[in-house]
Amino acid sequence: MRIGSALDPRLRVPTGIAVLFRTRLGPSWYKWHIGLQLVALLVIAAGFGVAIAIVEQKGGSHFTGVHESMGLALFLLVL
Are the C-beta atoms of residues 12 and 41 closer than 8 Å to each other? Predict the structure, then answer.
């Protein structure tokens, strides 16, 4: 899951945007674009959920450091 979460914003989101600008899919380009963006959102949400579960399982506190706060801010921007 870590690899999928790390690669998702760097690969799937730009791919969904590229479909908008670079392809000639005819009327179906919008369906491809939305589909790719939805897959990216689902993988990001799953990764966020796994991160929350791991912190909870280890007995840590949520969103206390800069890293955690930035992760939350980016997740909220994705939504």
Answer: no
Q: In this model, does residue 3 exceed pLDDT 80? A: no
Taking residue 58's Cβ as centre, other Cβ atoms within 10 Å add up to: 7
Question: CA-to-CA distance for 17 and 36, rounded, in angstroms?
Answer: 9
- Answer left, alpha or beta for residue 3, where phi above 0 means left and psi between -120 and 50 means alpha: alpha
Query: What's the confidence (pLDDT) of residue 2?
Result: 53
Per-residue confidence at 13, pLDDT binned at 50, 70, 90?
Answer: low
* Three-class SS of the chain: CHHHHHHHHHHHHHHHHHHHHHCCCHHHHHHHHHHHHHHHHHHHHHHHHHHHHHHHHCCCCCCCCHHHHHHHHHHHHHC
Q: Tokens 């579960």 map to which residue?
A: 53
Predicted TM-score (pTM) above 0.90: no
